[in-house]
Amino acid sequence: MRAATPVLAAFLALACGSVARAAEMRPPPGASSCTGCHAEGAAMGVLDGRPADEIAGALEAFRSGARPATLMDRIAKGFDAQESRAIAAWFAAQGPR
Questions:
Q1: In the record, what terms sit under GO molecular function (predicted)?
Q2: Count of domains for the chain
Q3: CB neighbourhood size of 5 (10 A)
């Protein structure tokens, strides 16, 4: 039984690590609404790989009205600062595609 313990421990570590990585790969709530316009080949610039501070700052500027927009100001108002930072961090971690 002792010989199986290290193998079992290694298997569990890999399995738990895979589950954790899968959870990290899921976008935060709201991020999927961005990809319609900000995905590769879409109408607006790609967000993947942009600095998180840049994305969060743009969302704040749209939300406050400091950055004029026809649509993004209304979309950005749907996210609070914490949600905006989570979305920005997720897109930044995606890296350029």
A1: electron transfer activity; heme binding
A2: 1
A3: 9
Q: Which residues contact 58 (CB under 8 A, 6 or more apart)?
A: 67, 72
For residue 81, what is the domain's CATH number?
1.10.760.10
pTM, rounded to two decimals: 0.71
Domain ranges, residue 56 = 28-94
Do the domain assignments include residue 42? Answer: yes
CA dist., res. 50 & res. 87, Å (int): 12
The CA distance from 13 to 65, in Å, is: 48
23 assigned to some structural domain: no
pLDDT tens per residue, the chain (97 residues)? 455 445 444 444 444 444 344 335 789 988 988 988 998 888 899 999 999 999 999 999 999 999 999 999 999 999 999 999 999 999 999 987 6
Taking the alpha carbons at both ends of the chain, their separation in whole angstroms is 47
Distance in angstroms (rounded) separating the CA atoms of residues 52 and 90: 8
